[in-house]
Amino acid sequence: MNLSEYPRPALTVDMVVFSWQAGKLYVLLVQRGAQPFAGEWALPGGFVNIDEPLEAAAARELAEETGLTGMDLEQLHTYGEPQRDPRGRVVTVAYLAVLPPSAALDVHGADDAARAGWFPIDDLPQLAFDHSQIVADAVRHLMTIGMLKHWNV
Question: Any idea which architecture 3-147 has in CATH?
Fold first, then answer.
């Protein structure tokens, strides 16, 4: 089989990081500093390097864009709708993390993220790409495993 006969999609990782603050569930977002969707809010994430394991790419992108390190990331789902990214065929692997209530929540935008911040899950801005769907799937996953029941969400 000659693999060069097959078009190659790009591969990205996106991270859904939740925190529990003052009785509410929050999600970490970054404001995009570059096109596409410059100025809009999105999940932290980016392209996987050709020689990089997925988990390493997720940890790297999260650190580069928000300053968060040492997170336990769980693979959530793979998203591959052909039109999900206006730059072309991009498949993303989404990761999930839930910070304990005692975790440090100081984040800052860096790399290609203009800003980073925590948003209450029930009052999110419009999100770039298909990130609203990814956040909804992450919340549904937390409900399925009973984590949100513990927090009365």
Answer: Alpha-Beta Complex (3.90)
